[in-house]
Amino acid sequence: MRNFLLNLIFLSPIVIHGQTWFTTGQNADLMVSGVDFNNTGGALLFNHPNGLASNGTNLLMCDRFNNRILIWNNAPTVWNTSPDIVLGQPNFTANNPGTNKNQMNWPGNVSVAANGKLVVADTGNDRVLLWNSFPTSNGQYANISIHLPTISPTNIPLKWAWPWGVWTDGTRVAAVATMGRTILFWNSFPVSDNQQPDYTITNANFGTPRNISTDGATYFFVGDHNAQVNGNPGTFFWNSYPSITNQPYNFYRNEWIKGTKLTSGQLIASGLSHIYTWNTMPTNSGSNPNLSAAPSCYDNGDGVDVVGANGRIYVCNYNGNSVLVYNSPPDSLNPNPVFALGISNYNNNTLDSIGYIQNPSFSTDGTRLIITSDYDKRIYIYNTFPTSSGQMASQVISTQSYDLAPWDNALYNNTFVAAGKNRVCVWNNAMNLSANPSQIFNGNIGSATLNDLKGIALDNRFFYLSDRSGNVYIWNGIPANNSVNPVYTLNLGNVQLNRLSSDGTYFCVTQQSPGAIYIYKVAALAIGNTTPWKTISGIGFLNLPSETITFNGSLAIANSSFNDVLLWKDINDAPDTDSIVVLGNNSNSSSNNPAIGINRLFMPGALLYENNHLWVGEHKFSSRVLRFASQSTTGTSDINIIIYPNPATNELNITGYNLDDQGILQYNFIDCLGRTLMSGKSSEKNLKISISNLPKGVYLVKLKGNIWYTQKVIKD
Asked: Which of 82, 130, 363, 516 is the most exposed place for a label (fewest CB within 10 A)?
């Protein structure tokens, strides 16, 4: 057996990784959970329709994640009627973001007047675009652009930005600055770029005001996703069109809605879960709707909107990725639409056809890519890592039957674990995730209270959980039952935690708010040292981080609110800005608008490193899964690096290598379980390393100088 091992070692090729690492602002090279880069999949494949408009005849729709506005000159009467015009893109296939007046970045809403004038909330570009006449060609340039941060007063605490709702009657214009919590009003249609509003409304009860509903006279209401009235989404109502600065609202209603007055005089509005109809305009908080419908196919969210056109009613189905069409207002007895624009069966989701995964989180066993989604309550398994964009999962497994909404997951040594809300599921055989979990923990494990689980990790020593409310719980392996207390509880205070990760050497805790990263050495935890080895906090370029991972002595942070990923090739250098690499942006800057593009990111929330690739999962407002490739080559070589003797007993000699740009060689000794048992750095050209304290066995010796180099060595 000994001779067999020696033959394996000396006959195996020397593996070399000539690596230039990742580069700031580089392109992603592959995308799943979507069609491809700059590819919508076609005119009728919608990706989160968010806003509707009509002059009574036509239909306009914000196809938000595709960075475009679709226009039907006559509102469609069947599900597969193609649009006539697209704005924001040169054709119906492209979806790149852009900042010119013929481009868009995540448009939020649209309004059209009877005279053809058009206004668009170009949310991701922080501007309002205006057309003086109804567009007649694809990609037609806007006439006017109003950039909200540019026109913001200098004496306000938060600049105006992120316009979400807009309205125009062809003369007046109103727009919502979600950032800045302000409604802006122009008494006449703007005639120049960055024209100042005539008056504004702010209110202490505004949280993140979103869209506008009005006829310009008898009603005006604004939905708010984070209204400060009672902590719930809600809507602020004015009983007439506001005409003065800071005009108070007349009443407030729970639930964020957007609506329109039908030709019948009824008010119809779409909400987060229901479609409502009032026979007369509500004038106080006690004016309840006369009709309410909750179609099973209705899966809304941030895209509430409804319009009437040509005698029909069109309702945004944001997460269903279609537009529901009715001949009359729906009610509880007749909730279903006549058809859904964009798909033949209104019960289906168009994005299932392209393998769309909402809020992805990753793990791998080195061969398979496993992705979980809390929103979909699913596990997606790719039997091999995707090699081309648009690749579908090999297997999709629902977690509905055991009520798991997995926010985070981990895989170690064929054990798969996933956690979300107050539930943890454990599979002892990760090769069969279609089976019911081997263990389910719900509500508590010993003294650990499970309220809103945001992180889970597993390695050869510990099992880890983080609750959003600031506690990290650590057990010696997976608990045998729900009465086992954690061996450590890390209470980080009144903070909000997110995902956890461990590579067996480093255990990373990501604190989302206020933004901070805590990195522990697993070996130190094993001897009772619960003090972080490294803390990254108080950094201006860190904002709502979601996940931190380590790999090969490197560090990566998903920096969700600044829409980038921060990398350090050497974890010891973090958070030094001189050593940082930034994906999704051209610098470590807070002025990075989100964007759905090949070299841009929108709320990166999850990370995975495998075989010189970094996988990034976007959350909430995009949900793409992107792969970034380090600029590296792998092959065999008869270069002059020599590691001897092999087998070795007490001392190992390493010669023939070149140091890196900082004059350093790094080395790691990794055992057959993937644990790094010894590591270090040297500036010597010929290195002697004592290995007398290493247990006998087979090791991978990984060197990082001007190249990566790996060789198997036996400790005798």
From this structure: 82
Nearest to 689 by CA among 710, 665, 705: 665
CA 548 to centroid of chain Cα atoms: 14
Last residue of a domain, which of 341, 370, 393?
341
Residue 437 lies in a domain: no
Determine the pLDDT at residue 223: 97
Residue 326 sits in a domain whose CATH number is: 2.120.10.30
What per-residue confidence (pLDDT) applies to 146? 98
Pair 165, 273 in one domain: yes
Residues 64, 6, single domain; the answer is no
Residue 138 has which token pair?
Answer: 């694809």
Residue 285 CA to residue 250 CA, distance in Å, equals 9
Share of the chain above pLDDT 90, in %: 82
How far is 716 from 713, CA to CA, in rounded Å?
10
What is the rounded distance in angstroms from the CA atom of residue 315 to the CA atom of residue 49?
Answer: 10
| Residue 38 near residue 95 (C-beta atoms within 8 A) | yes
Same domain, 137 and 235: yes
Number of domains in the chain: 2
CATH of the domain at 670: 2.60.40.3080
In one letter, which amino acid is 71? I
For 44-77, the pLDDT digits (tens) are: 999 999 999 999 999 999 999 999 999 999 999 9
Confidence (pLDDT) at 661: 66
DSSP symbols for 182-235: EEEEESS---STTPPPSEEEE-TT-SSEEEEEE-SSS-EEEEETT-TTTSS-EE
CA dist 714 and 12 (Å) reads: 14
pLDDT category, 707, cuts 50, 70, 90? confident
Average pLDDT on 560-587 reads 93
Distance, CA of 169 to CA of 171 (rounded, Å): 5
Other C-beta atoms closer than 10 Å to the C-beta of 673 total: 12
Domain carrying residue 684: 2-11+641-715
Look at residue 465 and give its three-state secondary structure: strand
